[in-house]
Structure formats: structure tokens, C-alpha cells
Amino acid sequence: MQSQEETRLAEMAAEKVRHDIYWKVKEIEAKRKMGEEYRENLKQQSQIEAQRLRYEDELAKKRKQEEREAERRRDAELVRMQEIGALKREQARRATEQKILEQELQTLKERAKNDRETNKENAISNAKAKAHEAKLTEDYERRMLVELMNGEKEKWLAAINTTFQHIEGGLRTLLTDRSKLVMGIGGVTALAAGVYTTREGARVTWGYVNRILGQPSLIRESSMRKFPLPGLKALKPSSASLSGGAGFENVILHPSLKRRIEHLARATANTKSHDAPFRNMLFYGHPGTGKTLVAREMARKSGLDYAMMTGGDVAPLGSEAVTKIHEIFDWAKKSQKGMLLFIDEADAFLCE
């Protein structure tokens, strides 16, 4: 009985131990579940906190990006406003410069117009003065020729009157004396022969004088007198003309071309003063550009006589052209100042 009781007590103790172990296991299992749930909750809370932090970080980044974008837009707008302001200022500056340039251009145009009018008036005045001077010279030469012709006329009239008086006396004598009549007829015959001989001799002499002193037919214009009068000496060129004084004021040229022409005029004057051989010059350009006027003014500035001919007059002469040109050069050598020969339209016969 005692052993059964001990066995039963042992079984009850074992059952109690099993029961305690069961509840311990249950308690441990519950604690484990609670720990797992706690860990799961912590994990979820951590995830939620991480998501919240990420969301807040994304919001902060987005806010900063929006702030930077807004600042960039403000900067871009500020730059655009500055560019617009600079463009307006540049446009205003250009408009002001354009206005100033137009005013300066208008001033230059008015000044050029005034200069042209002044040069035109000066040219007209100089032309009138030169024409008046030429007219006075021509009148003086005409008076000298008239006086010379009147003197010659009086001499011839006196000679004719004397001749007729002698003829009248001779006729009276001849009519009264037959031998003298025969001699008179012979004298009249000799006189007729003498008159014929004198006329032919005068014609030949006049042709020679005209060839030596007269102006050749090819010369259209010249500053040298056609028939120089005795006692009238050529005027010596003034020092002002040789040293570069007035002479090209009536000619409107480009400054560089004008300096070149003045240099050629001074060189020509120095060539004449040193008796050196002259150089040839070729002027080319469209009609009406002032080539003839420049040649005339260059001759005057150099203190030389000038003569002008046209190449179109030489071409039709054919074989006589050489003789006519030799006559021109022979005539030019008679100038006491020296001659500047200007051949206009020279290509009319030089190009063939």
C-alpha cells in the first residue's frame, strides 16, 4: 500500500511537473509570441518611421528644388529684364548716334554745297577776269594791227598818188613825143611784168611767213599769238606760278590726284627752267572729266604756252598727216616760253 501511495504520489508529482512544464512552455510560447509581435511592431514602426523620414526628406528635397527653381526663374526674369533694359539703352544709343550722323551728313552736304557754289562763283569770276584780260589783250593787238595797217595804208596811198602823178606827167609827155611813147609802152610792159612778179613773190613770201609764224590748221586752241607782233615779248612766268601758286582752284579733283597733278606741273616748270628734255604724259578717263582743263591749267601753272589739237582731225589726213604734224612741231619751237602740246582723243590715230 505504501508503495502504491508512493507511486501515486510520484505520479501526481510527475503530473504536476508535467503540468508546470506545460504552463511554463505555454508561458514561454506566449512570451515568444509577444516578443515576436513586439519585434514585428518595432519593425513596422521602424519601417513607418523610415517611410516618414523618406517622405519628409523627399518633401524637403522637393521644397528645396522648388525654391531653387523659383530662384532660377527669378534670376532668369532678372536677366531678361536686364537684357531688355540693355537692348533699349543700345537702341536709344544707336538712334542718338544715327541722328548725330544724319546731322553731320546734312552739315557736310550743306558745306559741300556751299563750297561748290563758292567754287562756281570763283570760277565764274576768274573766267570773267580771264575773258576780260583776253579781250583787253585782243583789243590791244587789234589796235596795234589797225595802227600798223593805217600806217601801211597811208604809205601805199602816198605811193599810189605819187605813182599816178608820175604816170599823168609821163602820159602827157608821151602824147607829145613819139619816141617817149614807145619807151612808155615798154615801161608799162616792164611795170606789168614787175607787178606780176611782185604779186607772185608776195604770195610765196606770205605762204612762207604763214608757214613759219602762222598757227597750223590742226591747232584748235593755243595761248600763243597767231601772228606775233614785233616789240611784244612773251611774258616771263611769275615765281608764283612756278612755285605752286594759284592755278588749280578752278579744277575739282581728288586730293591725291590734285597733289599728283601739282607735282607734275612743278616738275614741268623745273624742266623748263633747267632746259631739260620734257616728259610725255597720258591723261585717260571718260569724256567731261576735266582732262583738257587740267592740261590747260598745268601749262599755265608751269609758265608754258599750250596748244590743243584733236586726234580726230589727224586720222582723215592720210599720208599728209606726217607733214602736218611736223608743221605743228616746227611751229611749237617758235614759242619763247616753251610749248605744252595736248592731243585730245589721241586714240583716234595712235591706236591704228
TrEMBL record:
<dbReference type="GO" id="GO:0005739">
    <property type="term" value="C:mitochondrion"/>
</dbReference>
<dbReference type="GO" id="GO:0016887">
    <property type="term" value="F:ATP hydrolysis activity"/>
</dbReference>
<keyword id="KW-0067">ATP-binding</keyword>
<feature type="domain" description="ATPase family AAA">
    <location>
        <begin position="1"/>
        <end position="220"/>
    </location>
</feature>
<dbReference type="GO" id="GO:0005524">
    <property type="term" value="F:ATP binding"/>
</dbReference>
<feature type="coiled-coil region">
    <location>
        <begin position="25"/>
        <end position="122"/>
    </location>
</feature>
<dbReference type="Pfam" id="PF12037">
    <property type="entry name" value="ATAD3_N"/>
</dbReference>
<dbReference type="GO" id="GO:0008270">
    <property type="term" value="F:zinc ion binding"/>
</dbReference>
<dbReference type="InterPro" id="IPR021911">
    <property type="entry name" value="ATAD3_N"/>
</dbReference>
<dbReference type="InterPro" id="IPR027417">
    <property type="entry name" value="P-loop_NTPase"/>
</dbReference>
<keyword id="KW-0547">Nucleotide-binding</keyword>
<dbReference type="GO" id="GO:0007005">
    <property type="term" value="P:mitochondrion organization"/>
</dbReference>
<feature type="domain" description="ATPase AAA-type core">
    <location>
        <begin position="281"/>
        <end position="349"/>
    </location>
</feature>
<dbReference type="Pfam" id="PF00004">
    <property type="entry name" value="AAA"/>
</dbReference>
<keyword id="KW-0175">Coiled coil</keyword>
<protein>
    <recommendedName>
        <fullName>ATPase family AAA domain-containing protein</fullName>
    </recommendedName>
</protein>
<dbReference type="InterPro" id="IPR003959">
    <property type="entry name" value="ATPase_AAA_core"/>
</dbReference>
